[in-house]
Specification:
Blueprint: E1 9-10, H1 21-27, H2 29-32, H3 44-64, E2 71-74, H4 77-90, E3 97-101, H5 106-117, E4 121-125, H6 135-141, E5 146-150, H7 164-173, E6 177-181, E7 200-204, E8 215-219, H8 248-286, E9 290-293, E10 304-308, H9 313-319, E11 324-325, H10 341-347, H11 351-354, E12 356-359, H12 367-388
Parallel strand pairs: 1-11, 3-4, 3-5, 5-6, 6-7
Antiparallel strand pairs: 2-8, 7-8, 9-10, 10-12
Helix pairs in contact: 1-8, 3-8, 4-5, 8-12
Length: 389
């Protein structure tokens, strides 16, 4: 339950999550007790740090169905996506074509645009009103000179999951490298990169109840072996792909966080799915003109995107600021008041796109919390409509 004497109810877990107490407990010794440099393997302190990194690498690999040598630790999921996209495209001379979707995170879209500036040709696949990519459209976009396809596993704004296994299979059959941003999917369940035909994948710590400032990149080592051109130079850590002293406490936290998801993700996902279904039903039955955004079934747990006719989301957020923290758009765009590119891709520049907001409960959210928030949301929306009339 939310402490009435503390902060508003936190309902923005798709933006970031609190660090799980068990994750924090795993991390703490590596700040003050086991503080060696993991690259200093010639002495005991460095060996202890390296052992912790090795354990975390195994935990991440297990969560992905990958080999330990296929995991590269980075400073964020954004950095992982940049290394993957820039590195894979530049490592394939003679292949100057790229494919992505219209609903990708800027961490994918911006390096794609950079490659465009370098002379690559980019095809952006449209999505339907559920925010879903058609596998056939991806297949038709592939060319003999296609170097890379990048499609996210699940969207951070509307929760829609993409058919990444089918997309990956199409890419693999054509000899095209397939990258996927897994930031929103991995907090809920493990994944088998072999079965999903994923060759490169980006991972986030802070979306999965781990710390901020750490991510990881999966790089397929065989069938096919993915080659990446180096984009970061320095001491040669992480197979030379991401030089820099390893942040051992954060890496330990990432490994611990994903191990917890592996044990508890299925039951927690079922709880969140039921919680969100009740919330949507409550709001929709109490207010006219409520649209549920994103795919109704193929979506991550803990994501509700709604548009309420004649209710501006920023006004709604301001009215409920003391009650709960939620989002009117992706947290990565909060410095700009503009309609989300994702929602425009789904609905065009329409009232439904402009009126969308996101509620994302998490591990600490109870059914009572969300029911109380639903009642206050309904009341606030009714008041805003009266003022606008």
């Amino acid at each position: 339950m939310n402490d009435a004497l503390a902060d508003p109810l936190y309902l923005d877990h798709n933006a970031t999550t609190p660090v799980d107490r068990r994750v924090l407990d795993a991390m703490l010794p590596y700040f003050t007790q086991i503080y060696g440099n993991a690259s200093s393997v010639e002495h005991v302190h460095g060996n202890r740090a390296q052992a912790a990194v090795t354990k975390a690498r195994a935990q991440v690999a297990t969560h992905l169905g990958a080999r330990e040598n296929e995991i590269i630790f980075t400073g964020s999921c954004t950095e992982a996506s940049n290394i993957a996209i820039l590195g894979a495209a530049r490592a394939r001379p003679g292949k100057g074509h790229l494919v992505t979707s219209a609903v990708e995170h800027p961490a994918v879209m911006e390096p794609m645009r950079q490659l465009e500036r370098e002379g690559f040709e980019l095809t952006v696949i449209a999505v339907d009103e559920d925010g879903r990519v058609d596998v056939g459209e991806v297949e038709r976009a592939l060319r003999d000179d296609t170097a890379l396809v990048s499609i996210m596993a699940a969207n951070n704004e509307v929760g829609t999951m993409q058919p990444i296994g089918a997309i990956g299979a199409v890419c693999e059959a054509r000899g095209v490298i397939f990258h996927s941003d897994l930031a929103q999917l991995l907090p809920h369940r493990a994944l088998d990169v072999q079965a999903e035909h994923i060759h490169l994948a980006s991972i986030s710590g802070h979306k999965a109840y781990g710390p901020k400032g750490v991510g990881a990149l999966y790089v397929r080592s065989r069938s096919p072996r993915v080659k990446l051109e180096q984009t970061v130079w320095g001491g040669g850590q992480e197979r030379g792909l991401r030089s820099g002293t390893l942040a051992v406490p954060l890496i330990v936290g990432l490994g611990a966080a994903l191990e917890i998801v592996g044990r508890e993700g299925r039951s927690e996902s079922a709880r969140l799915t039921a919680l969100c279904a009740d919330f949507v039903a409550h709001v929709s039955s109490s207010l006219a003109g409520v649209s549920y955004n994103g795919h109704p079934l193929q979506r991550i747990p803990g994501n509700v995107s709604l548009s309420i006719a004649d209710v501006e989301p920023l006004a709604l957020m301001h009215r409920l600021n003391a009650v709960a923290s939620f989002s009117a758009s992706s947290a990565c765009a909060t410095d700009k008041v503009k309609t989300s590119d994702v929602l425009i891709a789904m609905f065009g520049d329409t009232p439904r796109a402009r009126q969308a907001f996101r509620v994302s409960p998490g591990r600490g959210t109870s059914a009572d919390d969300l029911a109380t928030f639903a009642a206050q949301l309904i009341s606030a929306a009714q008041e805003l409509r009266r003022f606008a009339a």
